[in-house]
Design brief:
Elements: E1 13-15, E2 21-23, H1 37-44, E3 48-50, E4 53-55, E5 63-64, H2 76-80, E6 127-129, E7 132-134, H3 136-147, H4 171-181, H5 185-202, H6 212-228, E8 238-239, H7 252-275, H8 284-304, E9 307-308, E10 313-315, E11 320-323, H9 324-332, H10 336-346, H11 353-364, H12 375-396, H13 403-431, H14 438-444, H15 461-467, H16 471-477
Parallel strand pairs: 8-11
Antiparallel strand pairs: 1-2, 3-4, 4-5, 6-7, 9-10, 10-11
Helix pairs in contact: 6-7, 6-11, 6-12, 7-8, 7-9, 8-10, 8-11, 8-13, 8-16, 10-13, 11-12
Protein name: Retinoic acid receptor gamma isoform X1
Biased composition (Pro residues): 1-10
Domain NR LBD: 213-447
Length: 483
């Protein structure tokens, strides 16, 4: 039998907490009774609503029902988080007597967690560290002592009282008490290893993946460098006894040999430049400008990468090995010590052939050179070279992120050496009996290094007239054409 609870006589009126009458209608009556005898009986027993008042079946006064003050959502199941009712008729009442309807207050927040006092010094604990409840001071003291393998000494009887006042007076007894209360060495080591692992994962080689374009660029630059500059292990070294023991102003025999090798090196540098992606796409005038400005930089960089610190020697491309004194006598003069010092600074970088080739390409393709016709185009060619060197160096040395900027700083040092080298070439012209080899002179005719030397003794008047020719014609006529 279907039964529906009816509100008791006083259930329609309830005293609110502020004295206002709160009315609960709670009846959603359909317009017609449902079919069936049982349902009809239940229907007839439901209260009726007329003009806002509810009529009770049988004798007794009707009672009014005020509408709720606040609107109710159309979808009650969404507000309550419940499924909608199955029946079409629902009566919802709450049997209370005369107690007030007080809305439930929000539950208070949980009390803060309280730890036991520090097991070491009895100060206020900040949590469990390395296995025991401890304060921040004792936690840090224990961690530092274990990580640095500290050895302390007690100046009394090794039984000092440790509390928050005296804990800093005897480090030996404080550390012993840390062990006594249960602090764990392994917990410190595990925490340290975990942090090291996180740092290693962040700087792992996999996080510096190169794009296919950069991989191809690196391959081309590295191949261009290796094919135009054999490594030290590929050379058959040989030495000479010429003026090996004392410095002289100029050893003409060594100068002739050095100038011959320098000419060959310049040809190889031009060949290296022509193999760099995008270089031959520049105008002829810009190609010559870049080669003149950077040729001495690259020449010095290549010589210094063949430095042998044990013998304090430099090895040239044909295997000729000269010591510091012989380099001085071959024409380097006062520039010698500066070049050897730079070579020593390159050793900690441990640059391989790929990094040397990329750094040489960055020296060459540089948009800040004077008299460039299209500096923006040159800068655009340099950008992927910089990115390639940065990622390659970082992938090769994951734990040494500072290597890339240190390599770039060497470009500034190279330019300083090149400027000194150009100044040395001016005085060298007065020391050698004959003319300067043409390709070396071509390289040294760079306005970035020194001004026109037509007024210097031994200068070539023809060259001076060429310098006064139009820029494009002059550079075109002096372009080195190595085969």
């Amino acid at each position: 039998m279907l039964t529906l609870p009816l509100p008791p006589p006083g259930a329609g009126r309830r005293q609110g907490r502020r004295g206002n009458r709160q009315w609960v209608l709670g009846v959603l009556a359909p317009s017609s009774p449902p079919s069936g005898s049982l349902c009809t009986t239940a229907w007839n027993r439901l209260p009726r609503v007329r003009d806002g008042c509810m009529e009770r079946p049988g004798p007794g006064p009707a009672y009014c029902a005020k509408p709720p003050a606040a609107p109710v959502s159309q979808d009650l199941s969404l507000l309550l988080g419940r499924n909608p009712p199955v029946c079409n008729v629902a009566v919802e009442t709450q049997s209370t007597s005369s107690e007030e309807m007080v809305p439930s207050s929000p539950s208070p927040p949980p009390p803060p967690r309280v730890y036991k006092p520090c097991f070491v010094c009895n100060d206020k604990s900040s949590g469990y560290h390395y296995g025991v409840s401890s304060c921040e001071g004792c936690k840090g003291f224990f961690r530092r002592s274990i990580q640095k393998n500290m050895v302390y000494t007690c100046h009394r009887d090794k039984n000092c009282i440790i509390n928050k006042v005296t804990r800093n007076r005897c480090q030996y007894c404080r550390l012993q008490k840390c062990f006594e209360v249960g602090m764990s060495k392994e917990a410190v080591r595990n925490d340290r290893n975990k942090k090291k692992k996180e740092v290693k994962e962040e700087g792992s080689p996999d996080s510096y993946e190169l794009s296919p374009q950069l991989e191809e660029l690196i391959t081309k630059v590295s191949r261009a460098h290796q094919e135009t500059f054999p490594s030290l292990c590929q050379l058959g070294k040989y030495t000479t006894n010429s003026s090996a023991d004392h410095r002289v102003q100029l050893d003409l025999g060594l100068w002739d040999k050095f100038s011959e090798l320098a000419t060959k090196c310049i040809i190889k540098i031009v060949e290296f430049a022509k193999r760099l992606p995008g270089f031959t796409g520049l105008s002829i005038a810009d190609q010559i400008t870049l080669l003149k400005a950077a040729c001495l930089d690259i020449l010095m960089l290549r010589i210094c990468t063949r430095y042998t610190p044990e013998q304090d020697t430099m090895t040239f491309s044909d295997g000729l090995t000269l010591n510091r004194t012989q380099m001085h006598n071959a024409g380097f003069g006062p520039l010698t010590d500066l070049v050897f010092a730079f070579a020593g600074q390159l050793l900690p970088l441990e640059m391989d052939d790929t990094e040397t080739g990329l750094l040489s390409a960055i020296c060459l393709i540089c948009g800040d050179r004077m008299d460039l016709e299209e500096p923006e185009k040159v800068d655009k060619l340099q950008e992927p070279l910089l990115e390639a060197l940065r990622l390659y160096a970082r992938r090769r040395r994951p734990s040494q992120p500072y290597m890339f900027p240190r390599m770039l700083m060497k470009i500034t040092d190279l330019r300083g050496i090149s400027t000194k080298g150009a100044e040395r070439a001016i005085t060298l012209k007065m020391e050698i009996p004959g003319p300067m080899p043409p390709l070396i002179r071509e390289m040294l005719e760079n306005p970035e290094m020194f001004e026109d030397d037509s007024s210097q003794p031994g200068s070539n008047p023809k060259a001076s007239s060429e310098d006064e020719a139009p820029r494009g014609q002059s550079k075109g006529s002096r372009s080195p054409q190595p085969d």
